[in-house]
Amino acid sequence: WVVEDIMVRVTSGPHEDQEAVVKHVDGDSITILLKSTKQQVSVSKNQIVAVLAKKKDRVKMLRSDLRGLTGVLIGIDGSDGIVKMDDNLDIKILDMSSLAKLATAD
């Protein structure tokens, strides 16, 4: 499920509870950039979870035929996210668990 350029939160280990950006994926080994220290560290897939997107956040698709595509979360309806896709401006209704907040340059 992990793709580059998404926001994740570390769930275990020395960097627990820190937010980070996924920089590189190599099988189960993930290189992340910690937001707080700008330090790159390696973690395993089971040590991170995707940061949930909020309305108006840019998002990246994690699953299905849309994997890797980006868009803007324009609404949330229960467990569904309403996404305006970047590539063709289509509106898609997708499960929130298949979306991750896209990292921004800040």
UniProtKB/TrEMBL annotation:
The entry's protein name is Uncharacterized protein
Q: Which ranges carry the Spt5 KOW domain?
A: 1-49, 54-102
What is the protein's species of origin? Answer: Cyanoptyche gloeocystis
Q: Which N-terminal stretch is annotated as signal sequence?
A: none
What InterPro entries does this protein's entry cite?
Answer: KOW_Spt5_6_metazoa, KOW_Spt5_7, Rib_uL2_dom2
